[in-house]
Amino acid sequence: MILGGIDIVTLIATLMAASTPVLLAATGELVAEKSGVLNLGVEGMMIIGAVAGFAAAVGTGSPVLGFLGGALAGALLATLFAVLTQVFLSNQTATGLALTLFGLGLSALFGKGFEGVRPPATGKVPFGPLSEIPGLGRILFSHDWVVYLSLALVVAVWAFLRFTRAGLVLRAVGENAEAAHALGYRVVAVRMAALAFGGALAGLGGAYLSLVRVPQWTEGMTAGAGWIALAIVVFASWRAGRVLIGAYLFGGITALQLQLQAAGYAIPVHLLSMAPYVLTIVVLVVLSAIHRRGVQAAPAALGRSFHAST
């Protein structure tokens, strides 16, 4: 189906892959913020995951090990953030910004030797005849396993936060850490686990960028995706379903601007490149304003350090 020179089926199929890195990072950050910790280092964790995943995949010849390496690298960087903010009680905002700068610098250093190298290909999930269904097959059954994992993680996080005792404890820690501590819950341990999970998903999202989306290593290749993930969590009112909508909105606009360039529309390339970021933020702000009444507010303890002695 072609509309104005744009292949709609290709556009929708492309947006699912384009959304995956941001969706993974935003889902992880949602869990971290639900525990009451604001981690502004998402960009740094994503770029570290991108270079570590790329290095692991190239070194082993296995994209699966590459994704695991990226997730592990992101989790390790998040654990460093957790130790600094939860054990040594450093300022969360300053530490998160420092984490991003650290990640960008470290990735540039270690990524030099991988420039111009091609990673092993990540295969698509074989759905057999389903992938041959006109239109629908291309949209739903033509992706790699990470795309489907990202969707499953959104559902899993939603169910975890809404229906499980552990999810209730996590939300309690994010709302009132002192009260949770008084009830016997290990606030620091809960927050560190949430941060490690968030870091692992950010690293996985970064690895997806370098192994699938590009696929190659380029310095600074996250290009603000981590900041978009942070914005999506906030404007999605800390709800998993809205995080999915926000991420797919960003991916859709990204895919659209690429299609517009390919179709030869006389729009300056710089405007097209900035469009996904600007339009995503504008739409999310508008939606947030429309649904402000009755929308879940930020976790009450978000960004506040916890002192076990209190």
UniProtKB/TrEMBL annotation:
Its main location: membrane. Keywords: Cell membrane, Membrane, Transmembrane, Transmembrane helix. The chain crosses the membrane at residues 6-25, 37-58, 64-84, 96-114, 145-163, 183-209, 221-238, 245-267, 273-290. It is a multi-pass membrane protein. GO terms for molecular function: transmembrane transporter activity. It is found in: Cell membrane. GO terms for cellular component: plasma membrane. The keyword Transmembrane applies. Coiled coil: none annotated. This is ABC transporter permease. The lineage of its organism: Bacteria, Pseudomonadati, Pseudomonadota, Alphaproteobacteria, Rhodobacterales.
